[in-house]
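Researcher: Structure prediction, please.
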Amino acid sequence: MEKRTLGKSSVQITPILMGTWQAGKKMWVGIEDADSIQTIRAAFEAGITTIDTAEVYGEGHSESIVAEALSDVRDQVQYATKVFANHLKYQQVIAACDRSLQNLKTDYIDLYQIHWPAGAFNSEIVPIEETMNALNQLQQQGKIRAIGVSNFSREQLVEASRYGRIDSLQPPYSLFWRQVEQDAVPYCIENNISILAYSPLAQGLLTGKFARGHQFEPGDNRAKNKLFQGKNFERAQQALEKLRPIAERHNCTLAQLALAWLIAQPQTNAIAGARYPQQATDNALAAEVKLSITELAEIDAIGRMVTDHLDDNQVMWEW
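Model: Predicted structure follows.
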């Protein structure tokens, strides 16, 4: 898979990244460690070398699973992890990074990201300057290679950039969830900041596998996803029907079509999660789907059947 440069850093990433929220088990159901390890390994073998995780995914469990899957090929992969909103004071950032290094069984992290802005989830308000000072220190020490932010608005991104170089923004972004295009995307393009889109398949909705009337098990975070509810879900089903003929033309799945559209957007890469090896292999194949300018515009218009009815709130869940 052809690599891309992450922001202005020296880190090279794959346009499809392996997402590992589910490997942490917390807020997911039916996840087995053995499956997660095999799936992460399958992603690597299919050409996905950039792996995204976070300290909060199962309190370090996801990071440990990533290490178990990939430690023997550490020199061939890029690890992206995150510090949570409750660890943004200077010493907390340093300590969190050290824990992540230990969990990942490595002496450097390729991309270290602020997971949510200070104040999220009732966390303490910490000045971004203090957090950035810690991240800059870690970068100078060689413990991290690049700095990123996640779930930041344009305004928050601009402020963080005053205190150091930000190489990536990780927002929720998919054909069915596009608020970031109006907010931070123009700034990212202007300042060469890579976009790492999470939930690029709208938590599985864009696979077309969730029929009308689907009920999630208790504890599954998707039960609170706005896109799976009411008229949003109905509009999504109608859009998927219009996308199917385009996918058939390319002999690809709906999921591969949605990922191919996303990584064709300016500076955008997609973090795709997977429970099982075949899903990871299928995600990697999306990088081979080449869409024409006409097709990209056609898919864009179909996606707006869903997104034109959403408000400006970038949080996808009703938490």
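Model: The two ends are 36 Å apart (CA to CA).
Researcher: Thanks, that helps.
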